[in-house]
Every structure is written in C-alpha cells, then in structure tokens.
Amino acid sequence: MSRKSVHVLTVINSASNITTEVIDGDEHIIVRDIVPIVDDIVMNGGLYPAAEINKSYKSLEGKAMPFGHPKVDGKHVSANNPRAINQFNVGAWSKNVRKDGDKVKMDMYVNKRVAMASKHGPEVVAALEALRDGTSSDPIHVSTGLDTMKVNSSGTSRGKRHSWIATKQVFDHTAILLHEPGAGTPDEGVGIFVNAEGDEQEIETVNLADSDIPGPQDPALKQFFNQFMAFFSANTKHAKEEENPMKELITNALKAKGKEVEGKTEAELMDAYNQMVAEDAKAKADADEKAKKDKEEADKKAKDTTTNSDEAPAWFKPFADDLAAVKSGLTANADQERISMRAAVKAKFSMTDLAVNALDGEPLKELFAQCQTSTGLNGAFRQVNSNESVSEMPE
Question: CA-to-CA distance for 336 and 345, rounded, in angstroms?
C-alpha cells in the first residue's frame, strides 16, 4: 500500500448558482452546489468507494479554497502551510458540505473584502462576478486536494475497470483555478506534494467530468473532447465577430443523428456530442463482437466441411497476387490521404499528435474542409483566460 496526493478537477459554469450575501458585515460571493467527488467513481484506474467517501467527505467543511494548489519552494504543500496562506489565500473557504444522492456537494464562500486585499483575490472576484452577471461564460475550474492510501484491488464500478482502491481519504483544500487549460489534463499539477509531516508524495490529477462520460474511455478521444471544450471557452466572447467552426461541426453532427440542438449552451452541446460518440462506440463494439463471433462460426464450419487443400490451386495464384496488389495500393492511397488531412488540421488548429490522430471519417473531413475555407484561427486552443481575439491571432 502507498499514499498519494490526488487533485480532482471539476468546473463551475452555472451563473444561477452564484449569489451574494452579507456575513459579519462583509459582502460574500457564494457559489452553491460544487461537486468535488462522486460515490464509486473510477478515475485514472482507481476506485473511490462510497464507503470511504462517507468516512471522509465532512473533512472538507471549513477548508480553505486558495488560488491554485499552493506551492512553496517549487513543491505543492498543504493549504494550511503559513507561507502558502500568505501567498495564495483569497478569503475563500468551503461550507455546507453534504451528500446529495451519490454526490458530495459543497458551497464556496468568498469574503470580497479579504479577497480584494489579497494578491490573487481581485482576479477571482472579477471572474465570479462576470460569470454571475452573464458578461462571461468562461467556466471556472476548481480542484480538490485529496490525500489517500492506495490499495491494489481490481474490479469494475460504473462500467469501468479499476486496479486499485482509494482508502483512508483526507481532504486538504479545494483550489480555485483561473489559468488552467479548458478542462484540465492528467499532466496538470503533476509533481511532489509535501504533507504536514514533511513527507513527500507523488501528485496525480484526475478529471471528474471525464470519468462521468459513459462508454469506452479512449485517451485520444478524451484529449480531443478536452480541446473542443478549450476551443469553445476561448472563442465564446468572439461569437458575434467570427463563426466557430468547431461548434458548427458538433452541431451538424448532432443534427445528422436527429439530436435536438436549438437553445443548448456550448457545454450542453458538448455533453450531447460526448454521449452520442459513446453510444456510437458501444454500437460499433457490439457490431465488432458480433462480426467476430460470426467469423469464428464461419471459420469453424468451413474447417469442418471443407475437403479441399489449405492451399489454393496453382492456377489461382496469379489472380490472388493481382488482387493483393490492388488491395495494397488502395490501402496505401487511403492512408496517405488521411495523413495529409491530419497534417493540415494539426497545423490549422494547433492540435497535438494524440488528438489529431484520433480523428477519422467525417469529423476529419469536416475539419479539413475548414482548413481550406477559413482563416485566422491558428492557435485556437489557447488558455481559457486569453484576452486576445481570434482575429488578432497570428496566421
């Protein structure tokens, strides 16, 4: 068994959950119904059982919500570290921690007076008020710092396999993230965490939203979806100035499957698209499994009934060779076409190799078409907080 520090990413994107209230004579911004963890969820191969969460979730009550995961001398530390308090405190903490069905929920309270007097607090206040007032739709990410004991044990939960179980969980803080990528990636926050006893632990970052997506969890598809969300967030403020090709692609894909798209927000469109892809992936997996069984039965039947030699007659060999040559040429041409289209899409949208290699079929053709017709979108996958308009980005 080993202990590990885990950062669980989630998101605030609902303006209706943000209110203000006067407490102790100071104005406070309150964000309700933040979900830091879910019962029996599997993240990065680890199971977070309901029984273990029930023992620990109340330890979130009253815990600090600093600006980012605090670091001292280049290493992540507890939010209770005095130097961390001096540098990262923004007058925010978690309150009303509770269970709602299978979800842990909590509210974030931000003392506006304390926040405005701190180093990073004004940024937090501005972001929350902009989301509340509807002047920005950029999501605000939070990440719960959790210390846990890993126990090796394999099984399945919520349709996902796990190889270890998170036990003896202790919550340290929940970080407010304003400068993270759109949906966070497993690479963010990786490093060393120094606990109160001075012991060093490896940090692992997981994404609660990714783990809630039903169906097969292909890493390339996850990264592709995350980049879609980052693109949406970066371009929402410019929607009236320039058309968003990514949003149009997803909307068209949903319409083609008869899905309702009118009146949906970008986050809702993304959820619907993720669900549609998961359903398609399941249908394809079922079809592949059926085809495999049919082939096995056909092969068995052929093996049981055939009286011919395993080798084709000598007179047939030239025809077989010609057929193989034609098939090989067609495959090579198709592969080269995909390589060329992916290269153009990668250059146009600044995508990673992993994300662009996940593209195929109609999604690849749709994005390739954008490379030929639209301009000025290079570098679209910028951080959420970019103030530079798309039209001002370099070609």
Answer: 14
